[in-house]
Amino acid sequence: MHTQDTTQDHGLTIAGKTYRSRLLVGSGKYRDLEQTRAATEASGAEIITVAIRRVNIGQDPNAPSLLDAVPPSKYTILPNTAGCYNAKDAVYTLQLARELLNGHKLVKLEVLGDEKTLFPNMPETLKAAELLVKDGFDVMVYCSDDPIQARMLEDIGCVAVMPLASLIGSGMGILNPWNLSLIIQQSKVPVLVDAGVGTASDAAIAMELGCDGVLMNTAIAGARDPIRMARAMKLAVEAGREAYLAGRIPKKFAASPSSPVEGRVA
Hints:
globular
């Protein structure tokens, strides 16, 4: 059963550390590092994902570093394995990230199935997750919205499961809320929607379903005004969480007057 307090919001706790923001953002696809910095600040996010195979965080000392725009002193950097298609490459990439970030343990695992759909390759994801957990990493993991696979990842020791809402970068929103709800109900670790969010209402819906957080990149970086969209996503995640904690009214096939009829004078 998903363990969370449904009366108060004590923050998002991952691998023993608590964060105020439940919005996690990526660092790719922006116009430049200045826009990355401004949008990240506007989002209020505290955890920032970084594609180690695509972004410089010190691998090239002669090139601008992302860490100048989103410094580790201010943000939790979450290295990810975007661009990896097998367990071996994913494990190597995160071991490299650990060296570059002075022993950093919290990572995001994603092993992709193909370049067209970017759907997770779950057999390789499970293999990589097991190797990384044994190697001492705190693994947050991008996965399919299959409740059985999500449970297997939790049993391996992953600190958060991150089912996709729809394909990465598609902006299609949450296509299967029922599977997502099943994962939320069974999980003892945080559940975060990863991939597919297109606009603020998608983020709000994810939070209203009971997700612990939402991760996004394209929805912000690809917007006409990324900084304004970052603010919108911040508010949407907060509103969705508040609505979830407040408890929505049940849906029913009958009208119910807003004003009471008992004791009316005429």
